[in-house]
Design goal:
Blueprint: H1 3-22, H2 26-48, H3 53-56, H4 71-74, H5 82-103, H6 105-126, H7 139-152, E1 157-158, E2 166-167, H8 168-183, H9 191-208, H10 223-229, H11 233-244, H12 248-261, E3 271-274, E4 277-280
Antiparallel strand pairs: 1-2, 3-4
Helix pairs in contact: 1-2, 2-5, 5-6, 5-7, 6-7, 6-9, 7-8, 7-9, 8-9, 10-11, 11-12
Length: 286
């Protein structure tokens, strides 16, 4: 394995581990890791005139060669062109950040990687007769994020390519129709990975959000204490989500998000949960 490929793998693994442990910003860190992979490929190709993208691209044949299994991961962070990475980054920022804040970082990470793997395997199954057909891009995993968001929050409204905002369930249908058009036309777009990722995200989302992957703060914080802190439109909106949410881990994620946005009314410092109460960095108990 080339040293620069090891660097890309390290960026992916370290970034993902940091997000998992700190329970924050996986969507943003993933965008940064994609940028690292993209720049690394450009630099290597410029300096060596080699097809560096082939080193990180996934091919169905890689599943039978243990030395190439790393491409299952690196291909999810690599992109062919600037337009390719920009489109995926924008999708991850707009929909990914929303979903991560809604369900918590750890459930989001699980959905992202399971959907990405499902998309990769779907591509491999559909192209097994052409084992050296390569694929790169975060689209399979991001499609899974779209599927998960549409399953959990079908009526949440987003805009697609600067068009009129529409519910996520409508966006998902449009997305599937686009994949069908791609499938019946001559294209080098890995539509199989998109469909596989979307289906995986849609199917596993309800299961993942009910899995206790992070600390439940709902038992330690009374909603009445939070209501007193909801002094802005944004905090009031988050508070309504906390009150309406029935899934314990999702509610915990919203409480954590609320506390990251709120400040101490006495000194303006950041808040945290300590034992049975919400306290600020300066020790005021709320």
């Amino acid at each position: 394995m080339e040293p620069w490929v090891l660097t890309v793998l390290a960026a992916i693994i370290v970034g993902s581990a940091y997000s998992w442990l700190k329970r924050a910003n996986f969507a943003v860190i993933t965008c940064a890791a994609c940028a690292v992979a993209f720049v690394a490929v450009l630099v290597v190709q410029e300096n060596t005139a080699s097809a560096a993208l082939n080193e990180v691209a996934f091919e169905p044949n890689d599943l039978t060669h243990p030395s190439r299994l790393y491409t299952v991961l690196t291909s999810m962070y690599s992109h062919v062109s600037l337009e390719h990475i920009l489109f995926n980054v924008l999708a991850l920022i707009f929909i990914g950040v929303f979903l991560e804040q809604s369900i918590g970082t750890r459930p989001f990470v699980v959905i992202y990687f399971v959907a990405g793997l499902a998309g990769t395997l779907a591509f491999a199954a559909a192209n097994w007769s052409t084992p050296y057909q390569g694929a790169v891009g975060a689209s399979g995993a991001i499609s899974g994020i779209l599927g998960a968001a549409a399953r959990l929050y079908p009526n949440e409204r987003f805009s697609l390519m600067a068009l009129i905002p529409m519910p996520l369930w409508v966006l998902s249908i449009i997305f599937v129709l686009i994949q069908l058009l791609i499938a019946f036309s001559y294209s080098d777009i890995a539509w199989e990975a998109h469909v596989g990722g979307l289906a995986a995200g849609f199917l596993i989302a309800p299961v993942i959000v009910r899995t206790p992957l992070h600390r439940r703060v709902k038992r330690m914080v009374s909603l009445s204490s939070l209501r007193k802190l909801a002094t802005t439109p944004e905090l009031k909106s988050i508070m309504r989500r906390i009150e309406d949410e029935e899934v314990p881990d999702v509610r915990s994620a919203w409480i954590e998000h609320f506390l990251s946005k709120a400040t101490c009314p006495q000194c303006g410092s950041k808040l945290k949960v300590s034992r049975e109460a919400v306290v600020c960095q300066k020790g005021h108990i709320l």
